[in-house]
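Sample A.
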Amino acid sequence: MRRYLLTFAVAAALAAPTSAQAAFFPGEPIDGPGDAITALGEVELAPDGTGAVAYLKPDGGVDHVFVARFVDGRFQAPERVDAGLDAASSQPVVAADDEGRLAVAFVNGGTLHVVNRMPGEGFGTPQAIAGAASNPDVALGVGAKGYLVWVQPGSSAADLRAASVDRAGTWSVLPGILDIAPERDAGTGTGRPRVAVAADGFAIVAWGEAGEVWARKLFRTEVSQAPQQLSGSAVDGSPALTADLPEVDMEFDSSFAWVAFRQVVSEGGARDRVVARRMRGTEFDPPVAVDGLAQGVGGGATAPGIDLNGRGVGIATSAGEGGIVRAARLRFDAFLPTQTLTPAFGVPPAPVPVLSENNDGLVAYFTGQGVSARPSLGGDRDEGDGQPVLGEEAVLSAAGSGPVDAGKGLDASVDRAFGAVVVWVQGPPGAQTLTYGVHDRPPSSFPGYTGTQWRPLEDNVLTWDDTFELWGAVSYQPLLDGQPAGPPVAERRSTLPEPIPEGRHAWSVVATDIRGQTFQMEERRLLIDRTVPALDVRVVGRREAGERLRIRVRAKEPGSAGQASGLDFVRVTPGDGARIREGEVRNGKRFATRTMTVNEAYSAGEHELKVTAYDRAGNMAVERIDLRIRR
């Protein structure tokens, strides 16, 4: 799996939610059934959950490149991207960046072309890169930085070349060749090249040349002058013979990468092993076996695969004797003991590993009966020894949809939050379907915003935060006391159709994604009180200048105990500017909670006595009394 690496904001990637409750959803069609799908190229997801699949199918009796974009959790209608080119196309590959940016490379009539799709735009016109080309691979990184590698005839043998892209989407061929010896074929057959790009825009290319595996870094418009030979070192004490099938991936930091490849070793005879080497700067650490085989025991291993997230956590996979699938988790720059994921299927399983930024991943593979995947959950769900927890195998292919055509390819990709897509071809000859299954995380935890204290809530509005969801719109169903309250809404607020009765309630919201997965927000209390306090104000005494008047105030909070907010305070403004609040001390006496007496002496004239009572929900009652004081 060729994986682009995008940092956008590293903190956002590190905070990607986990997905313990996520589910697999099997076989949905992308294209077909109809004329035969010729071959699957690649599927690629960007960290933000957008992406695409590229593949070949006949159009007018000639193979052409079609791309179906992945938007809001589903594949869109296929689009032909080699429009205007009449010759047959082959070897499509695709790379994805956030906001729907894509790069699709393919060979048409022997000429390598690349088509860009910029954010918010359609597919552009194919740009010719090189003639007599083959074996392309493409990768995109953050900020539109990307690379394309391919093979083309040189002066005496096949040479490996590279191109980079600028922000405008123009691809430029890098000077010179990447291979080591111009007189030897490079990047052909099982030595086909692979490229990966880091967040800073630098990349690494790995390829096979004359039975050896090599790697070289690319620096935007320059080629490193320090290529490294990765094969040739002994594995588990067994001398190395030849090597091929390199797979490569990089961390966010371009100083670190891993290359996995198949190496034939001599153990009293030739034996295939799958090994990996870590790049640090421009040098590589010694090889480590990731196939789980003991020296001389357990047959051979092939089909190397590796996928890293930006922080260097990864999965390496291999296929053992009889079609066993094995995986080794990379953690803290070292591989843990290899785990066996499947029994022997008796067919080449072609395993594909993918790993998200939250350390959850899966391995997809052929079983002989169809397509399956098995989760490998990391993060904080290990069992104390650092090993990932292996989930149950999920069958993605539908038994009633016809046979799976393993010869036409299998690929998988993942976004930053462990939304994964697996793509294959299924169906009888002449009525094949390009099919995909997904691992879709449900809506995640989200908080409510409407306060939990007593309130009138006169606008009848409940508010909450969005759930985390990369794949499509989420609908929100508010619940009041466990029952639906109004229709589902798409936004983060709901105006309930009926006033909420006064008293104590509990409310929540259920978020539902496009595949019917749900998450219910934790219940919050809702305390409603819209009734103002009752006031009884009496003035006792002679209303003459200099005489003291007794102002008796009784405030009462209507409603039964526990179903009303309760009286908060009473404020009396006696008319001369003095303010008296419940609980304050005046004339050495503390006012009672609900009854107070204020002694005031007024001068002759007109005065206004104002009494205000507040309850704990903020409801306010006001009574004004005009006092005419005689001389």
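Sample B.
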Amino acid sequence: MNRERLALTAGAILTLASAHAEPFKCPHTGGNFIFAQAANFATLDPMAAGTISTRNIAMNIYESLMTRDENNHPILELAAAMHEAPDRLTYTFALRQGVHFHNGRPLTSADVVASFDRYAKLGVRRSTLENVDRWDAPDALTFAIHLKTVQPTFIDALSSPDVPIAIMPAGSGDPSAQQPNQPIGTGPYRFVSGLQGDEVKLERFADYLPNSNFQERTGFGGYKQACFDTITFRIVTDPDARAAGLRSGAYQGVEDLTAKAAGDLKQDADIVLLPVRNWWIQLAVPNVSNPPTDRLPIRKAIQAALDMQEIMDAASDGTYRLNAGFQYPGEPDYLDAGKQTYNLHNPDLARRYLAEAGYQGEPVVLLTNTDYPSMYNAALVVQQQLQAVGIDAVMKVVGWPASAEMVRNTAEGWNLDFTAWGTQPALGARATMQLLVRPNAAYKPMAGQDDPDLRSAWNDMNMLPTPEGRKDAFARMQALVLDRVYAIPFGVMDTVQAVRSNVNGFVPFRIPRMANVWFSP
């Protein structure tokens, strides 16, 4: 959000590369790396899902024009160079030559055009493109984006890996479908097979062309190599089973260990624990299109009743920090606007709001899932706290993919969605607040129409010319969200990932990056 506008060329990117004389080369190749993933996935289509369970796998298959580096700065990926026109309304990308899709077809600008067309129709974050007038392909290796008005945040938006504009071969996926017929990208690993609830298998793409503008992997991009023969993402929703499989060697890597499991494994010389701070913001999102949470006093009653410390104690095994807003403490975009609404734990105030709303005991449905214990446990405590003030809070428990699809597709059958925002706060204020605007605003505004005050603040976050002005707009938007109870943050959670000691090059990030990771011989 505070980044200055930039123009990237191959020469400029070279200045970001490491000082090594030679690019990365796998010290050892071969083997099947089995990674135990905590949650099931609804789709492997990176355009159609904003969930980490999809991103974990898909980001190893697909690539984009731009992505982010290790420090969250925009970098080029499938583009070799980018030119910003003097009027700041046109961005022209020269594609890297020699890149091929997993089906053997060479990458051309026609594929980029088709991918942008598809994203504009079904992309979960297609609001990224709402200020785009058009895109075109002047030649086979050139792609241009023309904006309607100057947008200082456009490159930040375009490079976001939250729901990336993944480049697919033209004709590979029906724009009306929720996933391509078969995942085909340009990444270092290609799709072999997959079954929801079980596993997904990838294999090394022999014709992968690393990005020679870099010498090492960085963030989601850089110089990437597939060192394993195959990778298996195994769906293991039970945290104890993930820990046991890691200890036995059935899995070579896992995500989301409990604090107890991490403590038990700490002295095991065959296991390397990888703590990750600021993993996600645990929260609940009210549904403003479904009674009784369509009434602001009902939402305020829910907000007033909650004891965040009790909720986070149950959700996190104690590895948390209370936090009033939608950015991680200590990050550049962090601010505490609206903090007066946070952690009120005031039953009397909650009951006054219920009386003001004329509450008659209507059920408030808490939608949670069985894949993420932190979300399920948070919902259990919230249910007890709401019942204590007279709200008929009832649980609706489904699998994570079903929960995510229900929230995305309908405003019926639920009132409070228990979820977590992790990648978005890590990317900055803009990526986080995009979750609260159309076409997929998390709080389900009436008739799909944004709160006009929220929309005004969002527009200013994107369009105001100075970083200071855009941060002030974020403060305004966060305060509005909290005051009108469009989202209820509980706190910030940490996590622990882990690998077997013979796994090298695995560095925790927003997803398990499998490029440049190898087994000791």
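B remarks: The CA atoms of residues 94 and 227 lie 28 Å apart. The two ends are 44 Å apart (CA to CA).
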